[in-house]
Write a structure and sequence with these properties.
Blueprint: H1 2-10, H2 16-39, E1 42-46, E2 49-52, E3 65-70, E4 73-78, E5 83-87, H3 91-103, H4 105-116
Antiparallel strand pairs: 1-2, 2-3, 3-4, 4-5
């Protein structure tokens, strides 16, 4: 039993293979998050809702759209006209996103074009 406890201590989070695996997983997660955030930049954040837009340089040209994230829900909205085209959000959050998008429709269209050319987007004023 004593030897088993010593072996467990050596493979704990700071030492040995388990520690290396944990550090590797953290590093991979960090790289993935960095690449994801670069490819799907955040444009705005308000009332717990995060607005992101995919970069599709040289990729398929979809209808100009953005993604709205709220807790575990994701809604995808077209820019012109502003409407939910996929996914779902709770009714209140959907209305907030639609109101925000109507106010910033021209900015969203500009940011869509910027992203498709591989340029970094600018933040858009949140709903207040």
């Amino acid at each position: 039993m004593f030897l088993a406890n010593k072996a467990l201590q050596r493979t704990g989070p700071e030492n040995g293979p388990a520690g290396e695996l944990e550090r590797w997983a953290d590093e991979v997660g960090s790289i993935w998050r960095t690449k994801y955030n670069a490819r799907v930049p955040e444009l705005s954040r308000f009332f717990g809702i995060i607005i992101r837009m995919f970069m599709e340089v040289g990729g398929p040209h979809h209808t100009p759209h953005f993604h709205a994230y709220y807790q575990e829900e994701v809604g995808i909205f077209s820019i012109d006209p502003v409407e939910l085209i996929a996914g779902s959000l709770p009714k209140r959050q959907r209305r907030l996103v639609e109101a925000w998008a109507e106010l910033h429709q021209s900015e969203l269209a500009v940011e869509w074009e910027q992203l498709q050319q591989g340029k970094a987007p600018k933040a858009i004023e949140p709903l207040k």
